Q: What sequence folds into this?
């Protein structure tokens, strides 16, 4: 039989025992689970960063993968614990929006509020639901326990959205939603949107970022410019990225997540 | 047949080839081993940090899990190499105390000094017993090789203890044994001890930490105080933690591991 | 049936979604693959560091392991994508030399240039061949798809070498090729070379590093010197290392990768 896959995405870091404890709980209940570490290095409590990460990754996984996210600044409060069943996956985590970009990108079929203590570790702590609630429930779900056993259906869950671009006749007002290890600036301008405003034939972009006016070529690969030159490119997540060939655009432009970027329409 | 689980806990970091070499050795001998990374980011040579990590995690694993720890400042010296069989697990690593908190927390049944070179890689290095001794022995153990094959029984092994609290009529003198990524200060005051000295109904704590006198509420979840307020809480390891709701108590109180903390009894 | 092993070595870091996406692609095509993380923390675009890491590790893996490396500053350029079949393994990655130290250390049998789009994800990005080309091809290879299906044989691939030592009558001019987390300085002087120039009985070494003249003992384990003393030792990769017992030689000697080191012959 196929081993069920459970992916883990947390803000626990690599030096604390929290992720290791969750893996033990999962394997104690579902010994044949295939546990895949997505990352434990999301900035602590950064729900937006986690939501974007999850959105970028989960669609590449096989059907029925359980994606478990523990970025949970509200642990122990009244915030709910969710299982979101989508067309292809199960997303589990706290009801703070961290699951929503990925889940709504697949088709949401059912949302369950986890509240059945039969599936929790005992005693249950008020500081670590990742270990005491989410890990055991994920493992029981991987064991094919029916979704309905874990709690009632709930339609009132928190959804966050990508920051929306604003478009007028002369410009797109966008922002940087992620900066990766290579210093690529990932914006919230999708390829689809850009093609609507700029057509398919655009060879360069005029933009303003951090009060710097730039005219940069729009490329389909980094090496279409010389080493160290700035370019625009639709990256692996299909968003417009501002990059520097084999160097860091973030360093060159002194840019940070949430910085505004204006792209001229002409 | 169930895949045997081998967990790895080391101070090798993420950029050196040492952990990757150990995984290869294990899989060459026991191809169906399920290798679980606990952490490779223990501070280099920090036996206490490793011992606390192991103590916090291993009890969540299924019976017969092999927990392999390589934090080994004395590699190549006369320090022994151990397998400690407990009620539920096998703990393997250098005889420097790193295994002792976790092993004695389960019931120790037998301690073996590894000395049978039939199970070692050849040639054996004097700088990397993780790869040349511990990894192959763990893999053979996972293959159900009898424990006695690896070496003789040995009762004379090194045990470390949590730093002990001192209690007099007016205060508990304790210390910070770990600070996690969220800045929670984990003390060596167990819930059991605290309930003996303070009873079950305590709603707040008077304490002195870094020459700062604090009166903080004793909560069962972070959100019982406002954002940014300091609180006391028995955390996921059942020790008293000094925390700050959605922020770092370590930053706020300028605290470090081994700092003293005085808790008033009143 | 044995689960096929695919190891991953990248410069993606731990906070971006790239490695997680590759794992999903692999598991979607080859659900029983055993994915082993070697490291995702190679310095970005550092082909030499990746090549040395791969060389140090891969020989410990079982026969038929697929070693997939994505350190790929030239992604989207004309650089080729390779599968190198050696006596025991398959090495996959960009044709920039990163595979060459490890591959030539095993016996190279066949080199394939990957160019069959039937095995690629669609649409294929120009910025992330790790996800769109290498991951799916590795998974199909793990499914026993014949090597020839992925593209034509190609003998013209890029090989890098360890920086070569220069030897004259009085000294070996060498360099530091890696510094590990413990501050050990790993040189390019192999045990074999040293034994040719210095014989088997040498008890100490005269060397110059960063304008500092040192006479240090040549040991077979760290603890043959006192705590904090500098020593020479042939480490786990069989190269001469300059180490400090339970401390960092790199800090003590203010050394960096590529620093020159002169070893006197006398």
A:
């Amino acid at each position: 039989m196929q081993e069920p896959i459970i992916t883990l995405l947390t803000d626990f870091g690599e030096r604390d025992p929290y992720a290791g404890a969750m893996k033990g709980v999962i394997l104690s209940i579902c010994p044949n689970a295939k546990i895949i570490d997505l990352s434990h290095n999301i900035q602590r409590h950064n729900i937006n960063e986690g939501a974007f990460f999850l959105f970028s990754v989960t669609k590449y996984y096989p059907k029925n993968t359980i994606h478990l996210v523990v970025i949970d600044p509200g642990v122990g409060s009244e915030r709910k614990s969710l299982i979101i069943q989508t067309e292809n996956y199960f997303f589990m985590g706290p009801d703070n929006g961290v699951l929503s970009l990925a889940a709504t990108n697949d088709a949401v079929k059912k949302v369950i509020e986890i509240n059945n203590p039969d599936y929790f570790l005992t005693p249950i702590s008020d500081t670590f639901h990742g270990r005491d609630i989410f890990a055991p429930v994920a493992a029981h779900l991987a064991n094919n326990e029916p979704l309905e056993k874990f709690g009632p259906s709930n339609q009132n869950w928190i959804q966050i959205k990508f920051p929306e671009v604003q478009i007028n006749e002369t410009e797109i007002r966008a922002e940087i939603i992620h900066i990766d290890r290579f210093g690529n600036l990932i914006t919230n301008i999708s390829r689809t949107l850009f093609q609507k405003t700029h057509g398919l034939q655009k060879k360069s972009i005029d933009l303003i970022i951090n009060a710097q006016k730039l005219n940069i070529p729009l490329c389909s690969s980094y090496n279409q410019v010389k080493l160290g030159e700035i370019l625009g490119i639709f990256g692996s997540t299909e968003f417009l990225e501002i990059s520097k060939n084999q160097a860091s655009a973030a360093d060159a432009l002194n840019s940070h997540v949430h910085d505004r970027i204006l792209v001229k329409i002409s």
